[in-house]
Specification:
Elements (H helix, E strand, L loop, with lengths): L21 E6 L2 E6 L15 H18 L12 H14 L12 H13 L9 H13 L3 H13 L1 H6 L10 H27 L23 H23 L20 H18 L24 H14 L19 H4 L8 H12 L1
Antiparallel strand pairs: 1-2
Amino acid sequence: MSPMVNQEMPSSNLSSSDGSDSIRSFGNEGPREIHLNFPVPLTSSGPSFTPEDIQNLVDVRNLFAFFTGQPLVGTRIYPTVFKIMLSVAALLRRHEYTNIDGSSYGEAASSSFSFYLDDFQLANVTQSREKTIEGVILGEAMRSTELYNEAFAHAVGKYSALVGLKTSLFNEISSNTRGRLERASLDLSLRQKSIFVRLNDFYFPSLFAGFANSTTSAESKIIRFRAWKNSYLALRRAVISYYKALHGQWPPKASSKKNTFVESGLNRMVLKGLYADLCSLYDYLADRVSITTRSYDAASDEQDADNPNPRATALRRILSEYDKASPPIQPPVPFDTPLVPTMATIEPKFIMMSPKDQQRETESRNR
């Protein structure tokens, strides 16, 4: 909790002239009283207050508690932390709390909200559609980038479920954010479809459709692109065979003999396993000494121009064409060339052979 100093003032130090609280200040000139007058719109002067007046008074009390890291008070009208924080945000707007550029309510308010954000776990919106909607609304109301971005990302992922909830709470999200959510959800859906098409069959037709399909380029005279393609197709068959054996079918079906998935297809658990496998394969194959020379915006023929290894240059050109074949353009991976096995790693006795036998063995392997 934020450090606080809570001192009870003696009754003799309180002023009764206007009914307001007083704060003793100890400066160079000795103790003096400061009166704090905070305007609260009330419809009655008491001693009996309407429920609306009571709520207004509690809201002001919670505003001071908000800035001092104290417990917040709920009422029948605002019984939840979400509702209480919205009332605090309303007071911050009414009294024009702001930083220099107007992007937040100021450093003090942002710091206080960060404390409650952690204390009440307001950014944990993964398990509830209602909490996700509340997170977006509260992120907007409190001008909290942290909460807004977290809730927005989850809202995009389950946008159709949020709309299907048919709750009036969804309409409390600003029209601008609702529009952004709809566009981001559509973009995510298109990306998912593109990925699922590739992962259903591990088929990447554009990989060998351009530069690697040429028979007139200088690289085609020294590089066996057809052999590269055949090796890729052989790996594709092996991968599909492995996952069919693992799950019984690819893509997997729910509640089969091989698994207990509730959802068929490339569900979350399947994708997590696939991701882990591909990361392990990348770690095993990637040459971590040869970092990529490709860049996001450079033309394919301008990259790796000074590389003495024509095979690495050709491979990077193929990968660049593939990365740019369909939107969104994908950035290059940091290590995009594989560890190439040598005769010494394939044949244990190769080092002990004579130079003539080594040449004969190499030629036989390259046929």
